[in-house]
Amino acid sequence: MQFSLGTWTPVTDNVWVMACDPAGVNIGLVAGSDQVLLIDTGSSPEQGRQIAASVRDLLGRGVDHVVITHAHWDHLWGLAGFEGVTSHAHESVESSVEDARGEAMAELRAKLNVDADELVAPSNPLSLVRALDLGDLRVELLHFGPAHTQGDLLVSIPSRKVWFTGDLLETSGDPQFDETSSIETWPMALDGILGGATDEHRYVPGHGPVATRMDVFEQRANISMLYGAGEQLVRRGVKLDAALKAIDNPLDENGNPRPSASEWEWPFSTETVKAALPKVYAELAAHGMTPRTQLPLLGRM
Ligand SMILES: [Zn+2]
User: Fold this and answer.
1) Are residues 194 and 247 both part of a single domain?
2) How many Å lie between the centroid of ligand 1 and the Cα of residue 72?
3) Full domain range(s) for residue 202
4) Contact criterion met (CB below 8 Å) for 50 and 81
5) Contacts 24+ apart (CB under 8 A), 195-204
6) What are the tens digits of pLDDT across the range 61-93?
7) What is the distance in A from the centroid of ligand 1 to the CA of 84?
8) How far is the CA of 237 from the centre of ligand 1 (A)?
9) Whole-prediction pTM value?
10) Does 92 share its domain with 49?
């Protein structure tokens, strides 16, 4: 995979963002009068060391605190590049580091040229909220419940009206759903950053350009719509394989709409919906909602 660092771009006074490859992941930087905070660490220990050096080049001083927004490799695996730095993450991230060292991740580690024993866990886990005093700037780290992963942290700099959202928000493409996501509760986590939001607020997503309050509203609505659409399919008795088939091919062999074809527009690309729908069905099943074949008589009631 191709590794590269972008350039530090100001978001507002003393707050910067830099996009790094692979994955175009946004790395955040907040420089208080006393201490410096970095948000996410890139994809490998070597990239972490390069990011650390780029901070010294920009500010003439090093990183004091690191926040990991969630356990995905493009945000977490650079952490070992920040030796001796206090690192903050949700308490669930530690077990993800264990998983990342395991055999199941060997292929990805090889692609990124990362050894299992290079990966380190954050030093200061937290469960809900922590405030950091950087001198003239106060930063809040908040967990609003499971969303993109089970352990997302959001970073607020209240006096600058800036949020770093991790992958709860993406503006370079669709949000990403995997088996660790919680699609039902994701919109509620976004509500946490929309409370008190003004037109001046800026949101730095995990990937893509800096966003506004309206972008957050839109992504919240789309994720909510995805879950609601899945719920309707289940209520109508549409099994997962039929629902997936209808996404690719809404018409049957005779050119008629499949009963499972949705009459709504999916809010994301076909690829994203196909990745997300099995998770939506699994979450609904955990609530006891599974598609049942309806008797024709009942179906008309
Ligand atoms: Zn992610």
Assistant:
1) no
2) 5
3) 4-211
4) yes
5) 198/161, 200/161, 201/161, 201/162, 201/163, 202/11, 202/12, 202/161, 202/162, 202/163, 203/162, 203/163, 203/164, 203/165, 203/169, 204/11, 204/17, 204/26, 204/28, 204/39, 204/162, 204/163, 204/164, 204/165
6) 999 999 999 999 999 999 999 999 999 999 999
7) 25
8) 32
9) 0.93
10) yes
